[in-house]
Structures are given as structure tokens and as C-alpha cells.
Write a structure and sequence with these properties.
9 strands; 6-stranded mixed β-sheet; Rossmann fold; alpha/beta; about 240 residues; 2 domains; 3-stranded antiparallel β-sheet; about 35% helix
Amino acid sequence: MRPPVSDLPLVLENVSLSARDVAIVRNLTLAIGAGPPTVLVGPNGSGKSTLIRLAMGLIAPDSGRITWGGRADSDGRRRAMMFQRPVMLRRSAASNVAYALAAAGVRRESRIPRIAQLLAQVGLAHVTDRPARRLSGGEQQRLALARALARDPEVLFLDEPTASLDPAATKAVEDIIRAVARSGVKIMMATHDLGQARRLAGEIVFMLRGSAYECADAERFFTAPATREAAAFIRGDLVI
């Protein structure tokens, strides 16, 4: 059998994007391969969320080139994304997942067992029939993760997945992220929380002024950053 087509490595070459004459991403070159989570950190406005959207293929750059597994025309079926504030459909938790499975092309007869599996995976087996919009913030984020995982992605993009959650809900989401990463799914995540980056990252990309200012193994980044700007950011200094 022919092996499945991979979207990795994800490669951005001299990618730039502007909005209303303001540069958001500037001549960014970056390669993302398989392995532990790649976590984007940097000050607000540094381009983290925009980079996630470019990598997912939701927006196209003004210039430069993006390839997935060496292809510039990947259809994105092996990629999924969870937004910082995902919209819950006016349906039950199970129906939200069913909708995602249908959108992913899963056959109707296979959806019911898969719904149960996905809800159990994110710790929501007990809220199957509850309206999604009545779930707590943390439960909604976990349901959004289940919907993203319904695509059975090779690469999962997360944009500030715990930004508005309390510590207990944050831990629950982080535990799922770790388990998903251990299963072999490549995770690329943006976060403003350096503690979270330390806990989850295998690789750090430090974003500043729309550029990938530094890319390094997480342990090396936090113990011996290569740039003054990264060192200042880790200390909590203002970096613009």
C-alpha cells in the first residue's frame, strides 16, 4: 500500500503579509517537522496568531512560499485548528462533534462510536447530551479540541487555547494536548503564557515584529537564549 501523503515538513520561505499597509509578518522563513509540540511565544502583536493561520492555510501570504510536505497545493485534510474563542453550535456536545465528523467526510454509520471516543478522549463523556453553549469555558475548549480531532489530523494548530481559563481548566486542556502529542500528532501552538510554553514545548519559536527571531529546543531557549530580545522577554521585560 502507498503510504499516506504527509503535510510535514511545513516550510515557510520568505513569507510576508501586510494589512492596511502594516507589516504583520516580515520575510519569515521557518521549517516545522514531526516531533514534540512547537510553541510560538512573543509579545502581543508579534505575529503569532497570523503565523498559525498562514501555516494552517487559512490565509495566503502577500509574498513568499508555503509548502506542506513539499507541496504548495495541499488541500488541508490532514490539518486541523482550534481557535482562541471557538464558536459552539446551538446543539448538544455530541451533535457538535457529529457535525465536525460529517465535515471531515466520516461515514454516517461510523460517527456514533467515534463521537463517544472523542468525547471520552477530552473528558466530556458525561455531557454528551448537554447543550454546548451551556458548558463551562473549560468544557467548551475541550469540546473544541474534540471537534478538531474529529479530522484525525496529522498537524493540529492551537491559537491561545487556554487564554481565558482558570488554572484547573488550563491543566485539563494541557493534559489533552500532551496526550495528543504523544499519539504522534504534530502540534503547533501560540501562547502568551511562558509557564505553559515550558510545560508543553519541545521547540520554541520566539516571534518579534513579525519575524521568527529565534527558533530553538525549548530547554536551550529558556536556559541560554541566543538573542538579547529573547532573554529580555523571558525575564518579563517589555520587548517591542
